[in-house]
Write a structure and sequence with these properties.
A six-stranded parallel sheet has the order 3-4-2-1-5-6, sandwiched between helices. The chain has a six-stranded parallel sheet with strand order 9-8-7-13-14-15, sandwiched between helices. A three-stranded antiparallel sheet has the order 11-10-12. Helix 10 crosses helix 12. The chain folds into two domains: 173 residues, Phosphoglycerate kinase, N-terminal domain (Rossmann fold), CATH 3.40.50.1260; 202 residues, Rossmann fold. Helix content is 37%, strand content 16%. The relative contact order is 0.13. It starts with 14 loop residues before the first strand and ends with a helix. By secondary structure, it is α/β, with parallel strands linked by helices. The chain binds adenosine-5'-diphosphate and 1,3-bisphosphoglyceric acid. One of its GO terms (biological process) is glycolytic process. Its EC number is 2.7.2.3.
């Protein structure tokens, strides 16, 4: 069944729940460090407001327990600056206060409701029917006429605010969702050979994708960087030192080492591991080859090393298609930004390049890199889509 879009929605005077993904890097003070994801949704939001809709924005920020798990006030303030319409902030998500804030909207006005993940069920995965009976959905449905899902970056999560509303009220894809589905829908026709560069810190997501693209023969090469690369190195028997291993353990990713070992056994010829890594020693970047690693106490692998960058860059340059998700190191710290900056720059040289992810997009903007064929708002979502997997958000809009 085709998905309905904003072209199919009579917007004027209707109250819309609009799920967007403005999950962004924050400063230590909780301010926005990058607003790329907010800007990405401006088309959808301004269109709905110009068409005299009443917009209740739903969004998440961070993960429970993480240092990026904060309220959405800075996001609301920034949207208020960026949009040509009044945007209020409500510190409630689905309570009577939230409903009041939504009911008080006039035509062409918006309110940003509080971080959906402040509510515990929102961080669980449910089948759509069950998601449609959660408190969040139940609480808001009485004050909404329709739902718009523009949160492509969270489309791989079967969470209440993503898949619940379409079981209850008419639902539509926003402009970001529509564009991403168009561009990413057809990976099998992109030029070969295809190289997937996976990095960043969301190891289970990356592992699932690596498994899928190798199994389906979509990837000719998988280049591992970031924490993902560290996990593969640990799986390969490299002693990365306690600091790197503790980091993986603290994130709860210990099982991923076994998974990486299985993947190396089955597809080792197509998976590349870093041959050197960078640690901080005496306040400076210090590179260590992995075959003679001697990290000292407290030294964690924070970036891929120069030899790895050069080898990977060669593979990337010769690729027909490069799909890239996740920074190669702790790019926020200039000492460890080299791997990310150089690999990302090289990726623009491939015949066809797709990059995605919140932090990935932030890194691209930080380093001023352009020339990618498509910069997706989603990281995990884009990769999932590129594996041919169904995205729960899209299935929910279809049903
Ligand atoms: N070796 C590393 N050790 C610790 N953190 C890392 C390392 N490499 C990358 N990171 C971190 O990964 C984070 C981004 O990961 P992720 O959220 O998976 O990316 P994206 O949002 O693009 O999908 C960044 O904050 C970066 O500092
Ligand atoms: O940042 C996101 O995904 P990404 O890191 O894959 O780009 C989305 O907001 C989804 O967040 P989640 O991975 O905590 O569910």
């Amino acid at each position: 069944m085709p998905i309905e879009t904003l072209d199919d929605l009579a917007v004027q005077g209707t109250t819309l729940g609009v799920r967007i993904d403005i999950n962004s890097p924050l400063t230590d003070d909780g301010d926005l460090a990058d607003d790329a994801r907010l800007r990405a949704h401006l088309d959808t939001l301004s269109e709905l407001l110009e068409r005299d809709g009443r917009v209740a924005v739903l969004a998440h920020q961070g993960r429970p327990g993480g240092d990026q798990f904060r309220n959405l006030r800075p996001h609301a303030d920034r949207l208020d600056e960026l949009l040509d319409a009044p945007v209020e902030y409500s510190d409630a998500t689905f309570s009577a206060d939230a409903r009041r804030a939504v009911e008080n909207l006039g035509d062409g006005e918006a309110v940003v409701l509080e971080n959906t993940r402040f509510y515990s069920e929102e961080y669980m995965q449910f089948p759509p029917e069950r998601a449609g009976t959660t408190e969040l959905v139940d609480g808001l449905v009485p004050v909404l006429d329709a739902f718009v899902n523009d949160a492509f970056a969270a489309a791989h999560r079967s969470q209440p605010s993503i898949v619940g509303f379409p079981t209850r009220i008419p639902s539509y894809a926003g402009r970001v969702m529509e564009r991403e589905l168009d561009v990413l829908g057809d990976i099998e026709s992109t030029p070969e050979p295809r190289t997937y560069v996976v990095g960043g810190a969301k190891v289970p997501d990356s592992m699932a994708v690596v498994e899928s693209v190798l199994e389906r023969g979509l990837a000719d090469d998988v280049l591992t960087t970031g924490v993902v690369g560290n996990v593969f190195l640990l799986a390969d028997g490299t002693d990365l030192g306690d600091a790197s291993a503790d980091f993986v353990y603290e994130q709860g990713y210990w099982d991923e080492i076994d998974r990486a070992a299985d993947l190396l056994e089955e597809y080792g010829d197509r998976i590349r591991l870093p041959v050197d890594v960078a640690v901080e020693r005496d306040g400076e970047r210090h590179e260590l080859p992995v075959d003679s690693l001697a990290p000292r106490e407290g030294e964690a692998a924070m970036d891929v090393g120069t030899e790895t960058i050069d080898t990977y860059a060669g593979v990337v340059r010769d690729s027909g298609t490069v799909v890239l998700n996740g920074p190669a190191g702790v790019f926020e710290d200039e000492t460890f930004a080299r791997g990310t900056r150089e690999l990302f720059e090289t990726a623009t040289a491939a015949d066809y390049s797709i990059v995605g992810g919140g932090d990935t997009a932030a890194a691209i903007r930080k380093f001023g890199i352009d020339g990618f064929d498509h910069v997706s708002t989603g990281g995990g979502a884009a990769l999932n889509m590129l594996t041919g997997e169904d995205l729960p958000a899209v299935e929910a809009l279809r049903d």
